[in-house]
Amino acid sequence: AVVSTQSTWGVSVRSSSFTIMISFGFLLLALSCVSAESEVVKASVKSGKNKFSCTFTLANDGAAVLKGDSKVVCTPNKPTKKKVSNFEVSTDTATYKLSFNINPEKLTKASMELKAVKTVECEAGFTRVCPSGAAGSCPEGMFNFCPYNGSPAAAEDSWACSCLQTRMLELDVQAGLNPLGECHGECICMSG
To answer: How many Cβ atoms from other residues are within 10 Å of residue 132's Cβ?
Structure first.
């Protein structure tokens, strides 16, 4: 079914509900493909007798390092053509094993091992509340709640999970309020 036909500078433009649905589908597909997370780590690196200060920007999809989206930048700029193999850096979420060249910098090999996620267990009468992940994703067994009729953020929040009194949490959710207080507008994940 044709929704509208318009003429702009002699060019006929037709849009249909089918075309709009296809366009929306491609938009959702494009947004879902952009789910890489990135971590920045600074480390001192020694290659032979030379010491460098390097900053690693490590993109990953949750299972593997995305080498094309990751980079390493080291100073000083001399000496050139140094190689480092199996260098380990660690973050709160993963341990990375990296091989790279210095001056010019190029990441040649990268792997990662995710660290075990420490879950907060709550006593009876309390509910676990965690930050919402990118685009509102939540850990398994939890659901997303956005107060004030808000929408999930594109980036994930980074505060620690905590246990809140279940009865107070229920009242806040029914009222559409954030159980963390009115100054907090971000979405949260709650155990269900």
So the answer is: 21
Alpha-carbon span 32 to 49, nearest angstrom: 45
> pLDDT category, 108, cuts 50, 70, 90?
very high
Q: Confirm whether pTM is higher than 0.90.
A: no
Over residues 94-104, the pLDDT tens digits come to 889 999 999 99
Q: State the CB neighbour count (10 A cutoff) for residue 92.
A: 9
Residue in the structure block whose two tokens are 């009222």: 175
Q: What is the DSSP string of 47-61?
A: ETTEEEEEEEEEEE-
| Calpha distance 139→31 (Å, rounded) | 20
Contacts of 120 (CB under 8 A, 6+ apart): 128, 130, 160, 161, 162, 163
The set of residues, in sequence order, having a beta carbon less than 8 Å from that of 162 and lying 6+ positions away, is: 120, 128, 129
